[in-house]
Amino acid sequence: MTDLYRLHSAVGKHFAVRKKRLQTAVLQALTLLIGGASGAVFAGTEPADVTFDSTFLQGYGQNLDLSRYARAGMVPAGEYRLQVTVNGKDQMSQTVRVVAAGKNASRFCFRAADVERWGVRVNKLPDQEQVAKTLASDCVEVQALIPGASFRMDMASLQGDLSIPQAYAGRVRRGYVDPSEWDSGVTAGFVTYNANAFENQNSVGDDSSSFSLGVNSGFNIADWRLRHNGNFNYDDDAGSTYSATNSYAQHDVSSMKAQFTLGEYFTPGDSFDSVPFTGVQLASDDSMLPESERGFAPIVRGIADTNAKVTIRQAGRIIHEVTVAPGAFVIDDLYATGYAGDLDVTVTEADGRQKTFTVAFASVVQMLRPGSSRFSLTVGRYRDDNLDDQLRFTQGTYRRGISNLLTLYGGGILAEDYGSLITGAAVGTPIGAIAFDASFSRASGLPQITTDEGSGDSSGRSYRISYSKLIDETRTNFALAAYRFSSEGYLGLSTFAHLHEGDPTQAYLERNRFQVSVSQPMGEVGDFYVNGVSSSYWDGRADSTTYQVGYSKSFNWGSLSVSAGREFQDDESNDTYLLSLSVPLGSGSRRPTLSTTASYDGDNNSTVRTNVTGTAGERNQANYGVYASRSSSDDDSTHSYGGNVQYRSSIAQVGASVSRGEDFTQYTGSASGTVVAHSGGIVFSPEQGETMALIEARGAGGASVANGQGNALDDDGQALTAGLVPYRNNNVGINPKGLPVDVELENTQQQVAPRRGAIVRLDYPTIIGKPLLLQLDNNADVPFGAQVVDADGKQIALVGQGGLIFVRGEHQGLKAVWGEDSGQSCLLLFDPATGAEDQLYQQVDATCVHG
User: Fold this and answer.
1) pTM to 2 decimals?
2) Phi and psi at residue 21, to the nearest 5°
3) Per-position DSSP letters for 777-802, written without gaps between them
4) With 50 as the cut, is the pLDDT of residue 1 above it?
5) At what angle do helices 19-33 and 3-14 cross, to 10 degrees?
6) Which residues make Cβ contacts (< 8 Å) with residue 644, sequence separation at least 6?
């Protein structure tokens, strides 16, 4: 059996292989056989013509026209997804469109958005009028746009190397996706649901049953997202009730990197406390920014004497490396890395000399990159179903990054009988990042309040300070330490709204609040942490303090964690101690895990619970668990046990559990998933998420969504995958395993950048038909490597060794072509019915008729 025969057999056994890649592989094999060049193809250079001697193909292709291999620019026309490297350092995934340019050449077409991602200094290019025309066209060629630039495409690895002269090379925007590539999706409606049913049987009381259904629903039309969220509940005592959470319409404002919201929503919580409202809001959306421009990271500035390499490390790990030209350099596209410590910068010159310096890096949530800003503006009514009079208010906030060390922010709220202002600054210091702000409020029309200012009037202030620091020497991480003091007359908007209507039960007059979170890694010893919060109030509520200390460590045989916590409520305290041990059972990726948890509350009340959990199924689509528990106190002890199972099918995730104790038995059932209705029908999915992709591959029912854990294409060849990241390139793929034998996917993966909340549609072309392996008659003079084209002249296959041709589906008028002369083509005649029907593919005889 020849190599090509084995290749085609493998294709049949695996049911689906991209035909374009098969043809490329044969082309490359042919090129190697005839002593050809590598699979690399260049644009922007003029490779010399070469002549191949067909006698190296003795017995296979002496009559074959090899002129198409005479130039390195020979690439079949079509679209290719490549991993493009810019000037040998920055990588990105891009699509290049290859267009035939004459008999033996190709053009490599990019888009204007691709040029922006490369960081090209367009304003520095000569002939700006011609530059504008080129960028406006549907085929931007590298060498036509940028003098001295070149593009290299490697067919074998589907990679591209782009070289841009230093004079025109700017900063590559890492993670940037041009807004023109953001996909708004299709017109569609959806419902995401979580349903739970409970049946309780009690030996000492009445039996009861209950049901709950949470729904997140929406409809997308003309770039608008209409949303409604709510909950339905039923139980034997209260009957059925439905509670609407919110309903709103939302639209991207791409030019401002913001969201416009109309309806019932929530204000941002970065400056003032977040409150529900009914009205309109325009607010910044960080997710529209590239990852290299989100959050806070300092700008690194320095001077290089030569073409130098700049290496930036954090905690000893390289987080960024770039080559810079001689002179001053600025690096302002570091990814936000949280609270991970100072940056160590090393400048390695061309002659090997090194210079090092440190850039302080500590951040609190209020900090922004220098020159960046965030804003929000809300106009509406305070939303609370318990209030008869919904308070009208207007709120605005603004933050601005001034430098590496300073961010300023402020805002205000204006309502009837109420006003509030906030102003603050976040500062980076050698001892950590500190944010300090002051809020002021003034209110009137509150009859239940009497102060020195008069009856019904109240004014006050609130001060807040936050701190964050990673101590490099000890790796102690103060992830958050904050203290807030409010005077007795200070009122937040929510508190004022309830007092204004005479409802003091929902008004919380907080006086002091302190919270802290500290973690301390100890290397091989383990990790320690401390978390705590303490609050006191002006209105007579009991002071409260809660804190917890803990330790955890992973071993070769499992993991161990212990913690101790205490809760103070006035003079009373409650202690809790917890020990948890987890050990895998057996070996392999699906081995179950045994976990034991023991707790003790300090009042001789203790509980010991043991669980065994695991996964099952070819795609880990099933989860199971069993447990046993024992609780004891001074004079009593109880036991309970139970089990649960969840299964992720192609339409929903369902689960069931049972728990049994000495006096009760509880049964539960659950179901969750998403239903989407669109112009092509209704699709079910076990996945949930705001941003989704609708996959359509005609006839491909049975294939699964890549990494879908049970999510498979239905009988119509449709599937829904959720949880896509908005405004980012997401890879969405199909695993062809499980395809019908007569279906082939032309493409198994696509990349899409959806807008927030969009339902994007991805069509995967398929070829449907019984796979055929044609065996040419021994007397046929068709050479190895000849093209096989259909009646429209479209190439669908190549002639392999031994006269074998692999095709799929029904094709009319197939011809073999190996040159332009009249005698260098023939019509293929064969009868598919002569093949064995019980095989994965049919092997049939074929003849080639000239004329």
Assistant:
1) 0.79
2) -70, -35
3) -TT--PPTT-EEE-TT--EEEE--GG
4) no
5) 170
6) 624, 625, 626, 655, 656, 657, 658
